[in-house]
# Entry
Amino acid sequence: MNVITVHGKVVKPAEMKLINLKGEPNAMAVFTVVDLGLPNQQAEPIFFTVNYPKDAAALIADYLVEGKEVNIVGTMRQRFHKGPDGKKVPYTFLQADIVELLPVFAAKRKTNAEAAS
# Structure
């Protein structure tokens, strides 16, 4: 499988779901991230629905709020479900193996010249 890394911001806060994983109930965080690309890149933003079915999901779900910057490492997956008309509808998502919360730097660091004065 191809592993991808996404650096982006949360646009839809995490919702906790209880799933059956290997016969046991497990917590899963589901949230949406936008990848804005590189700073000098003129590309359209890409939105990913992220599923994070790890034990740590319950611990970090409160921090996955709108605007939070994150790094995500995982694989793209696709599942199918039946739509209202009975046809198969695809559901594509990023299955996260690692979710890294990035710090927000609100204060501007002083330059050497400002620190010396």
